[in-house]
Automatic annotation (TrEMBL):
<dbReference type="InterPro" id="IPR038404">
    <property type="entry name" value="TRAP_DctP_sf"/>
</dbReference>
<dbReference type="Pfam" id="PF03480">
    <property type="entry name" value="DctP"/>
</dbReference>
<keyword id="KW-0675">Receptor</keyword>
<keyword id="KW-0732">Signal</keyword>
<dbReference type="InterPro" id="IPR004682">
    <property type="entry name" value="TRAP_DctP"/>
</dbReference>
<dbReference type="GO" id="GO:0055085">
    <property type="term" value="P:transmembrane transport"/>
</dbReference>
<feature type="signal peptide">
    <location>
        <begin position="1"/>
        <end position="24"/>
    </location>
</feature>
<dbReference type="GO" id="GO:0030288">
    <property type="term" value="C:outer membrane-bounded periplasmic space"/>
</dbReference>
<dbReference type="InterPro" id="IPR018389">
    <property type="entry name" value="DctP_fam"/>
</dbReference>
<dbReference type="GO" id="GO:0030246">
    <property type="term" value="F:carbohydrate binding"/>
</dbReference>
<protein>
    <submittedName>
        <fullName>Tripartite ATP-independent transporter solute receptor, DctP family</fullName>
    </submittedName>
</protein>
Amino acid sequence: MKKILSIGITVSLLVMLLMGCSSDTGETAGSKGADDVVTLRLAHNLNEQHTVHLALAEFGRLIGEKSEGNMKVEIYPNAQLGSEEQVLEQLQVGGIAMTKVSAAALTPYADGYNAFTLPYVFADEDHFFTSMESDAVKELYQDTHDKGFIGLTYYTSGARSFYTVDKPILHPSDLRGVKIRVMGFQSQTDMMQALGGTPVGMPYGDVYTSLQSRVIDGAESNETALTNGKHGEVAKHFSYDEHTMIPDIVVISSKVWDSLTAEQKAILQEAAVESTEYHKPLWNEAIAEAVKEAKKDMGVTFHEVDKGPFREAVASMLDEYGKKYPEVKSLLDSFKALE
């Protein structure tokens, strides 16, 4: 009897957690009762100090304000409801309303997202912002509706550069024979090979010890990896080649989205865009603080780089991916026109 009771309680808890969108009266998200409050559950895998979490909290606050209390967002940080992949799967069936996911992780769902994993797609940060706020990206957001979700907005995660243990990477030739940890996407492997380096795929959590033991000679990410991941304790050179700018995307379940009224959808879209603007200065502050800490407390040297030779070495990649994925070519052409 105790075993049956335990199972029943567990199932009940799971149902309560996984209901992505509900109202205080137990009706659906699109209900029109005067006393209904639509509750949207948002889950992600970052801590509560991360700039993206702070932006998502502002997103939730804005939704409550704009809806005059008729909508609210409950946020579950720190992977409380699962990993990024697990949360996205729950979102697709309507179990969770919203989440934040790297654009690179969306490549299996829409070919166009491959564009964001390619090197030197954006000329600089301003070009990145202009491109991400273009009609072409808004159309891309809708391409995954039949896959169970759509995009609402983006948050910058900065530019990714190389950081290494004992020498800077100032030219592609500096990568010859150098083992660099890359994310597990084909485009990252292709990029490293085009630059002459040796790509090594491994979980992010293994990077620190792998740098220590020289299983790898370096990695690539933004400046916060030096401090948040403590990689600056081992890797003493950060080279600003800025090869990729891969945004985070805020997505919402198609089932939840379709259940909302036109007014509710407008509130979400307005709040999403405003949260993106809220996030930009937070990110700049986090980068400035990471650089200051890495220099002062870790002894990391930051190197400016002539990006020209790097761009030339990987230029053919954009053509190759454009031929393979028509959606990528369309986006790249659109971004190019915005330079």
